[in-house]
Amino acid sequence: MRIAVRRAVTALATTTVLLAASACSTGGEAADEKKPVGAAKGAITWYAMDFGTDNLPQKLIDAFEKAHPDIKVTLKAAPTNSDTVRATLTTEISGGSSEIDVYNGDVVWPAQFGDAELALPLDEYLPKDYWEQFAPGRADGTVHEGKHLAAPLFTDEGFLFFRKDLLEKHKLPVPKTWEELAATAEKLQDAGDVTYGYSAQWANYEGLTADWAELSASAGGATVSDDGTKSRIDSPENRKALGYMRSLLDRGIAPKAMLSFQEAQSLQAFTSGQTAFHRNWGYAWGESENPEVSKVKGKVGMTAMPTFEGHPSPGSSNIGGWNMMVNPHSKNLGATLAFVTWMTGAEGQTILARNSMIPANEAVLTDPDLAAGQPVLQAAATTELVSRPSNTPRYAQVSKAVYSNLNAALAGSASVEDALKKADKEIGEALGGGGL
Fold it and tell me: Quick count: other Cβ atoms within 10 Å of Cβ 412?
């Protein structure tokens, strides 16, 4: 297991103590002195789309208000389309509106929103040890130009789902490398147990960027530089990763139709019994165990993603999910930060975990009692996370350059080498641009 449990001091402290600590220096350096936030009382508005089940956002509000009777939280329902949410927030906040105090933001937004000054830098108000409560990788993508623009609320991750019954039948181990996965898949195909070996999200859309981030990182590659200023996609490591993806199609391990598969189509291929291995987000576990839609109920296992031979195991899992971000125009910062710290602390995160969400708080994520009977939480505690190349305000343009050129290479309309060279050129042009 990669994650070592650390003391989550902030997560176990009360919000009042945390906010009091944030008003003073945590290290004696001038840079650590925090701005005053005002009293933690009054009314605030939280803008968020529905998530989880059984009206989970309202359940969290009710628990928070019980713990903080001086604060009233109003939930403003956001649409389910994240692009629409992004557009709405951009319009309102850039126009100076203070109607929304805190909002849920996609994990790929911090650099974009930070550059456009649509999110409050939280380091100015929270102590350094606040960030220590999060499991490794969860807070990395919230930083832009050295500042935390968001606090992790819950995550989603890429997982490998597999037909455990077929592996047991042939006395085969769960693959730990991509090479082993391909070889095992062919054995199961040759035995007539499945039509295809693998299904994932390789359509010409954002999901392919997520899948690519995993394979690239597991081969030792990257799409952009750590500082988000240069393209790194045209490399030997990435040629290996993309060449492997292309080989799955050429060898018939992945169906040709996978070039149009998004999450739903790739999952259906797995739950219908057509494929042996499947890459998807955590929700796929519940779907695979749902007898109304799945023919493989009780026959599925899940684990962290594979790696390439010669690289550390497990492989990389792309991080998804949602953060909490604060409107710079909020007129009740004390209450807003109290809400954010409670939601990301032990009590709020425990409620998320008990409602089948993957918590970002390490102490909660690694709690064996909470993980009991929840395979998704058990698997999430073993993953190595990698972000998409979202450490740039030009992420939307970068992602399009990635998925459009990769899909062309997978379809055979461009060679692996030419696709990466073209992607490299387009990413370089995007990184040199401006605007949100």
Answer: 12
Do residues 365 and 135 touch, judged by C-beta distance below 8 A? yes
Distance CA 200, CA 239 (A): 19
Sign of the alpha-carbon torsion through 253, 255, 256, 261 = negative
Residue 67 contacts by C-beta under 8 Å, 6 or more apart in sequence?
A: 15, 342, 347
3-state secondary structure of 166: helix
Backbone conformation region of residue 298, classed left if phi is above 0, alpha if psi is from -120 to 50, else beta: left
CA atoms of 366 and 266, how far apart (whole Å): 30
pLDDT in tens, 316-330: 999 999 999 999 999
Please report, to the nearest 10 degrees, the dihedral formed by the alpha carbons of residues 83, 86, 88, 93 taken in order: -170
Give me the residues paired with residue 155 across strands: 321, 358
- 53-110, pLDDT tens digit by residue? 889 999 999 999 999 999 999 999 999 889 999 999 999 999 999 999 999 999 999 9
Q: Coil, helix or strand for 299?
A: coil
Q: pTM of the entire structure?
A: 0.89
The count of other CB atoms within 10 Å of the CB of residue 232 is: 17
The answer to whether 196 and 274 have CB atoms below 8 angstroms apart is yes
What DSSP string describes 261-298? --HHHHHHHHHTT-EEEEEE-THHHHHHT-TTT-S-TT
In contact, 152 and 143? CB cutoff 8 Å = no
